[in-house]
Amino acid sequence: MRHPETAPSHASCTVAVAVSRLAYRCGGSAGIFVRMDRLPCFTRLAQGQGAPEATRRLVQGRTSRNHEVVAQPLQFPLASRRLERRTPKGFECNNASHQPGPSAKPMTSIVQISDTHFGTEQPAVVQALEDHVREHRADLLVFSGDITQRARRGQFASAAAFVRRLEADGVGDTLVIPGNHDIPLYNVFARLFTPYGNYRQHFGDDLEPVFENEQMLVIGLNTTHPRRHKDGVVTARQVERVARRLGESDPGKIRIVVAHQPFGAMVPSDLSNLQHGAEPALQRWAEHGLDLVMGGHIHLPYVLPLSRQYPGLAREIWMVQAGTTLSTRLRGTSPNSFNRLKLHPGDEKKVCVERWDLSAGRFVLGSHFNLSW
Ligand SMILES: [Fe+2]
């Protein structure tokens, strides 16, 4: 529904963005668009407040064609001013500070893979990931959905065999959740009556597994639904269940929620891909000590402090997004990638997030960030 107070400025925003688009088509630079990004009307649009659909599509279409803009985070100016006073910033990860001393316990690590879309996987990339795990190992493998391309039995069988090989190569435990592609799309009967039949056959009946040890609590959420094509939704029941589980756990543990669709957007074109119900869920979970949410879905890896997008959060919650790990379904200039999280639980908890990118047939360290609270 259009917000009555914003309608006139959105009309002018539509004209302004159209001018930007025309300038771009005539050979203008991305800078024109970036300046448009600073217009108050654009900010309201980006925050989804009363955006006319035509304007939203115009902005989204313009953005998705520009990889330089895609590489920059969405700006929420009012929120980010508060952020400087209220929350710590992410900083470049100093890997040296993350090496355990001689008497320290071995570091706990999570490998997050996502959106493998088996059926479109690349055998050489599958091999590269197995080589990485054999060399570096991991305490936990988090698989954040879109395991398959079309939820077919053979695609799940290939994916399950791949996970078993990773476990044999050096993964301690595995936590898997479904994505929207893991429900049949064309087989309407299966979609209506046994939407998770093939998933369950290969990955078990539990669609919302939980993993907990001395260092971490990882809560999986199924945010897919057979009646929704792509969108994810967090229900009130899920919000309360997660809040209760967070409240019962040791505050020194790293507390994580994994869901397929993202809770925070990096670029305007992804605002329509956010979880339905994201804001009230995050508000509630922040009150109960959530540290981090992990997701996939949009094939764009990034790390974001969610208090920029949701200024009322009681504490910082970091968003760790994974790209597509194995699939040919690459987005823009982002290569195949996965995340490796190194956990430092305790009074001064820290997490080092490494993104490993495919380059020349092998996964190499692409970026790293230290997260703190
Ligand atoms: Fe996907």
Automatic annotation (TrEMBL):
GO-annotated molecular function: exonuclease activity; metal ion binding
Top-level taxon in the UniProt lineage: Bacteria
UniProt xrefs under Pfam families: Metallophos
Residue ranges annotated for the Calcineurin-like phosphoesterase domain, each copy included: 109-300
Keywords: Exonuclease, Hydrolase, Iron, Metal-binding, Nuclease
PANTHER family cross-referenced by the UniProt entry: CYCLIC NUCLEOTIDE PHOSPHODIESTERASE CBUA0032-RELATED, PHOSPHOHYDROLASE
Family: Belongs to the cyclic nucleotide phosphodiesterase class-III family.
Name assigned to this protein: Probable DNA repair exonuclease
Organism: Stutzerimonas stutzeri (strain A1501) (Pseudomonas stutzeri)
